[in-house]
């Protein structure tokens, strides 16, 4: 991974939401992460861990409270010189072209009055200023790239299944050969068989164009099969980063082990150790001084409640935030 070009760098990124009664919610807390060319980076964790908020910030769809976002070494978002930074005009257009996002529910992406062909032609007419004839030919090619026939060009969204709509969303997202594809639970609403097809499709086009993928998911099997790097988040913080191939075998953080224990396979050892989470999660609306996981960790000691552990390398490509690893 060290030899792959860094496309996006998220540096100490935080996001705080203002709530009622003068309360705040820290959704993302000082997260640093890099996305590299040709690498699929997956972020996993329970609902509310901050993974989707992080993805939206990376796509410049959510304002940043603290930290910075870099694109090919140049800051394009976050806080700069104490003030929120925002790009506009051609710079924003270029970023939107090179960093595409696929959302969880494909139905919400489409206008019910717009034909699929018109939807697919938009990137070409908007970014590349192609003629309608050229855009139509390219849109038909986009359909073929996701293994759909030309008959879909004149259909409306309500005439398609969820899996077909997600294929169309992917076709549009990869139309202009983006450098980064952000998938926010892009397969979670689909049947298992369709999930595998969609991920195989993304992998097929990644092999062709070598784009980076940020894959947000709670499906650990998909993550293990398709990701080169896995990031585990809990209550807005990263607790472990590791190689995708080592995800199941070499996880070291107690929370990661508990996540993996929740997924059973017919190939599992019947005598394998099961990690059970006890206690209540800490409130994200309060100030957490120690480890975010200490309330539910069977290994927690006094130091865990006093000091937040930092990510430390334990082998190449593997970092863990735990005092006892």
Automatic annotation (TrEMBL):
<dbReference type="InterPro" id="IPR027417">
    <property type="entry name" value="P-loop_NTPase"/>
</dbReference>
<dbReference type="InterPro" id="IPR003593">
    <property type="entry name" value="AAA+_ATPase"/>
</dbReference>
<dbReference type="InterPro" id="IPR003439">
    <property type="entry name" value="ABC_transporter-like_ATP-bd"/>
</dbReference>
<keyword id="KW-0547">Nucleotide-binding</keyword>
<protein>
    <submittedName>
        <fullName>Oligopeptide/dipeptide ABC transporter, ATP-binding protein, C-terminal domain</fullName>
    </submittedName>
</protein>
<dbReference type="GO" id="GO:0016887">
    <property type="term" value="F:ATP hydrolysis activity"/>
</dbReference>
<dbReference type="InterPro" id="IPR013563">
    <property type="entry name" value="Oligopep_ABC_C"/>
</dbReference>
<dbReference type="GO" id="GO:0005524">
    <property type="term" value="F:ATP binding"/>
</dbReference>
<dbReference type="InterPro" id="IPR017871">
    <property type="entry name" value="ABC_transporter-like_CS"/>
</dbReference>
<keyword id="KW-0067">ATP-binding</keyword>
<dbReference type="Pfam" id="PF08352">
    <property type="entry name" value="oligo_HPY"/>
</dbReference>
<dbReference type="GO" id="GO:0015833">
    <property type="term" value="P:peptide transport"/>
</dbReference>
<feature type="domain" description="ABC transporter">
    <location>
        <begin position="8"/>
        <end position="260"/>
    </location>
</feature>
<keyword id="KW-0813">Transport</keyword>
<dbReference type="Pfam" id="PF00005">
    <property type="entry name" value="ABC_tran"/>
</dbReference>
<dbReference type="InterPro" id="IPR050319">
    <property type="entry name" value="ABC_transp_ATP-bind"/>
</dbReference>
<dbReference type="GO" id="GO:0055085">
    <property type="term" value="P:transmembrane transport"/>
</dbReference>
């Amino acid at each position: 991974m060290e030899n792959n070009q860094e496309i996006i760098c998220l540096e100490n990124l935080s996001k705080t939401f203002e709530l009622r009664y003068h309360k705040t919610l820290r959704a993302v807390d000082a997260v640093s992460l890099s996305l590299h060319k040709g690498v699929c980076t997956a972020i996993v964790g329970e609902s509310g861990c901050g993974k989707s908020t992080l993805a939206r910030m990376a796509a410049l769809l959510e304002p940043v409270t603290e930290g910075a976002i870099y694109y090919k070494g140049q800051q394009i978002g976050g806080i700069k010189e104490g003030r929120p930074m925002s790009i506009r005009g051609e710079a924003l257009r270029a970023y939107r072209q090179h960093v595409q996002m696929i959302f969880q529910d494909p139905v919400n992406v489409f206008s019910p009055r717009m034909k699929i062909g018109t939807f697919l032609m938009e990137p070409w007419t908007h970014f590349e200023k192609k003629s309608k004839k050229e855009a139509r030919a390219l849109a038909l090619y986009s359909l073929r790239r996701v293994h759909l026939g030309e008959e879909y060009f004149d259909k409306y969204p309500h005439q398609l299944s969820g899996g077909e709509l997600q294929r169309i969303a992917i076709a549009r997202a990869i139309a202009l050969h983006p450098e980064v594809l952000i998938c926010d639970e892009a397969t979670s609403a689909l049947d298992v068989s369709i999930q595998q097809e969609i991920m195989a499709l993304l992998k097929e086009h990644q092999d062709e164009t070598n784009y980076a993928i940020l894959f947000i998911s709670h499906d650990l099997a998909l993550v293990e099969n398709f990701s080169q790097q896995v990031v585990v988040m809990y209550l807005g913080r990263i607790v472990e980063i590791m190689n995708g191939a080592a995800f199941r075998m070499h996880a070291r953080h107690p929370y990661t082990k508990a996540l993996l224990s929740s997924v059973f396979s017919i190939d599992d050892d019947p005598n394998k150790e099961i990690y059970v989470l006890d206690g209540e999660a800490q409130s994200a609306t309060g100030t957490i001084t120690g480890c975010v996981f200490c309330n539910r960790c069977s290994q927690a000691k006094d130091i865990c409640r006093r000091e937040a552990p930092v990510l430390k390398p334990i082998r190449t490509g593997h970092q863990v935030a735990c005092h006892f690893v």
